[in-house]
Amino acid sequence: MAPRMLAISGLAALYAASASPEQLAGCAAGPDETHVSMLQIAPATGPLGSSSAEGIELLQALAASDPRTPPGGGDDLDMSLLLEDHRSTCHTVFLTTVFGSRPDPQGKIHKPPTFDYIDRYYRSILAIPGGRAQAVVLYDTLPLDVIRNYSTGDGTVQFVNVDISGMDEKLGLNDLRYQVFEEQVKKHPEWDTIFMTDASDVIALHNPCVLVDKQPDKIFVGSQPQKMKPYTYIQMKFGELGGKYFDWYMAQPDGKLQLLNAGIIGGRRAKVLDALARMNKVLLDPELAIRRNGSEVKVNMPAFNYVFHAEFGDDKIVTGAPLHSKFWEYEARADVYFKHK
Question: Which of 106, 177, 240, 257 is positioned for an S-S bond with 228, CB 3.0–4.6 A?
Fold first, then answer.
């Protein structure tokens, strides 16, 4: 099956990437005449990601027609980000992981990976205007037809096989991925701006290298609306780290630090490598409480918050808009670089 994105032109594709599966299904079925007409008038010729005055008007209309758009319709749509995508000369490498040889990170059920897992992520990369975005999907097992059908001839999306069989079997997949990321980044000194994201619930709307160029000394991370403390679940996860990590958490004042989310991390190469090394040092610490009691290590969230709050410091991190949308609010907006649920 050929990538369905190839039938959708530039800015219409951007809407398709940011829309929910229900909205896309609605476009196909035809109950929403506005969405149907907008997708039908989009020209199907020209390079994916091309734009025009008509294309910008199309994107504004799509945003205004989305029932989830905040009050003001398309007024919140920042066209400057689209213009930056085309005018900039910087390049971003996006890394994500798809692992199928171990149980799914959300539970013990083993789910063989399919293209559906990365479908929206994949389409969003193809839709970034300007052509200076490259995605590398790191996988251990994937059906051959997925790799054959969805690898792009121009290198925009590549599938790279990695061997995780020799890695710590106690590490959950969301924790293990930081070792895979670090190994890959070290192999590619030509990668300058790098972003690592979840594959199933993060999509890219614009090229974030433009944002990084403005603050090259910062590290860019995801976050959630909640504060890190008090938060019963996060306190429990810090308890699984134990030792100095738990002591640090308990010493933080209530209601001060934002809860950071490990679904987005990026920046300049040196900053990214520093962050990955710090993450892996925590995750592989033999003194972790959960490791000492023999349980599976799934502590990337507390480790992430410790590394960036305690070691980098809040003056060195960038989070929230315009880097990403509000987590888990399914916002219909294109004035951010990433949409996270």
Answer: 257
